[in-house]
Specification:
heterodimer; A: 290 residues; mainly beta; Immunoglobulin-like; 11-stranded mixed sheet; 5-stranded antiparallel sheet; 20 strands; 7% helix; globular; B: 168 residues; 5-stranded mixed sheet; 3 helices
Chain lengths: 290, 168
């Protein structure tokens, strides 16, 4: 059973842990983040892949979008697909259209009928992940927190049980940028703009505040990486840590699509059986040429 | 200065409210296989940013206002002003223009100039062309002027000569 799950577990980890050293990155790439005129649409690629922004590994499977890939053994996926929530400026949820899942990417379109800022978010309930040793062998488990006690063998050693929360977002604005979609959910790690994420320009400094469970979070590692990794040697990332007010500032050296990732790991004050909480946030941001 | 311009000037020269601004924008001839007339935005900025729009040229005739889809390609104008406007705007929106020099005259009672406080400004011209490039040119000026003032700058790629003539 554990072996069967390995592949999907690895993918699930990749999606929930975009920052861990060996993980693939999960991302969405919109055709644009600034639109003008009426009858506007955007098209979005969603993928799990190392390089930004090349789809070359797995599609990011999203609930209700396209036909999910079938496993060779015919078994159902071990867990529900990620759910994409598209929020319009008026707060209503908008459905993605023309969904398709290919070998390396999911694709969907969003019709932009309102003026203002839309949010595309892939988040969801926390996921639970255990890592332990059984007879000296490294084992992994994913499931509901309530089941962890029964799922792990009695002789499990070095047990680490993690609560993992992730949020992945893209913002798109038609006309004037608006702030309605930034109302925090109060769960996990979230971005609060000081600079609107659809008003980013190369050579300018953008400021964001990161919230953990709705409160400004100090000491959050935030990393931004410009796309186009394949065609250069260096990652060219910029690393910052949020200050006491949860604030972080980036001066964009160049225009283009950038990937932002933020991470908080908590190990103190965990309630058994949890030993760790990992909350991550990622966003694909478009920095305009000046 | 062109002679046609001298005639109205002569008539109003003695009048206190004769101040006016003439902006000339050259759409250059380009040796490209596929040519589309550029979208052009002309506006006034000061040190703090956008002050007033003077003119925006885009494709007004496409079905379903499809031409507005590309307004964002004039990305500074879109940021400074366009994105907050409900287009088309009377007296601001105009059709794209062919290759050549285009003169626009703004009298003192034009909404942009009537509200213009004395100070230092920049005339900003931004052009974006379908399947082509984009260029932004700035031309500093002071307002108002005691004597007739002429400012001139040349674009390098998408814009030709830009001149600004201000009458006291």
């Amino acid at each position: 059973m554990l072996k069967q799950l390995t592949r999907w577990t690895a993918l699930a980890i990749a999606v929930t842990l975009p920052l861990s050293a060996n993980a693939h990155r999960a991302w969405m790439l919109p055709s644009t983040t600034v639109v003008s005129g009426d009858n506007a649409w955007i098209s979005v690629d969603a993928a799990v892949a190392n390089d930004l922004f090349y789809f070359e590994h797995h599609p990011l499977v999203l609930e209700g979008i396209g036909q999910p890939p079938q496993r060779a053994d015919g078994n159902a996926r071990p867990r529900a697909a990620n759910r994409l929530v598209i929020t319009a400026p008026d707060g209503e949820e908008v459905a993605a259209q023309n969904g398709h899942v290919g070998k390396y990417r999911s694709v969907f379109d969003v019709e932009i009928t309102q003026k203002g800022t839309y949010k595309l978010a892939v988040a969801g309930a926390p996921r639970y992940f255990a890592r332990y040793k059984e007879n000296g062998e490294e084992r992994r488990w994913m499931g509901e927190l309530a089941d962890v006690g029964d799922a792990l063998p009695a002789n499990a050693q070095d047990v680490q049980v993690s609560q993992m929360e992730s949020r992945m977002e893209v913002f798109v604005t038609s006309g004037e940028p608006t702030d309605s979609v930034f109302a925090p959910t109060g769960q996990g790690l979230e971005l609060q703009p000081i600079t609107h994420p659809n008003d980013l320009f190369a050579k300018e400094t953008a400021e964001f505040v990161f919230l953990l469970d709705g409160k400004p979070a100090a000491g959050v590692e935030v990393n931004v990486i410009p796309g186009g990794i394949r065609h250069r040697d260096g990652l060219n990332d910029i690393r910052q840590t949020t200050d006491a007010d949860g604030k972080v500032a980036f001066t964009w050296p160049s225009a283009g699509f950038w990937w932002l990732e933020a991470k908080v790991v908590q190990e103190d004050g965990m309630q058994a059986p949890l030993t760790q909480r990992r909350a991550t946030y990622s966003a694909t941001l478009e920095v305009m040429a000046p | 200065m062109r002679t046609w311009f001298l005639l109205p000037l002569a008539a109003f020269a003695a009048h206190a409210s004769a101040a006016e601004m003439t902006v000339s924008v050259e759409v250059p001839r380009l040796a490209v296989a596929e040519y589309h007339r550029p979208y052009v935005a002309i506006w006034i900025e000061n040190g703090e940013g956008h002050v007033a729009d003077l003119s925006v040229w885009y494709d007004l005739k496409l079905q379903d206002n499809e031409g507005e889809k590309w307004l964002k390609d004039m990305r500074q104008w879109w940021r400074r002003s366009g994105r907050s406007l409900a287009l088309p705007v009377d007296g601001l929106s105009g059709a794209t223009r062919p290759v050549g020099e285009h003169s626009l005259t703004f009298p003192a009672d034009h909404s942009a100039l009537a509200a213009l406080k004395p100070g230092d400004y920049q005339l900003v011209v931004e052009a974006a062309r379908e399947v082509g490039g984009r260029e932004l040119v700035r031309l500093p000026f002071s307002w108002p002027v005691a004597d007739q003032t002429e400012h001139q700058v040349s674009g390098k790629t998408e814009l030709g000569n830009i001149s600004l003539n201000i009458q006291p």
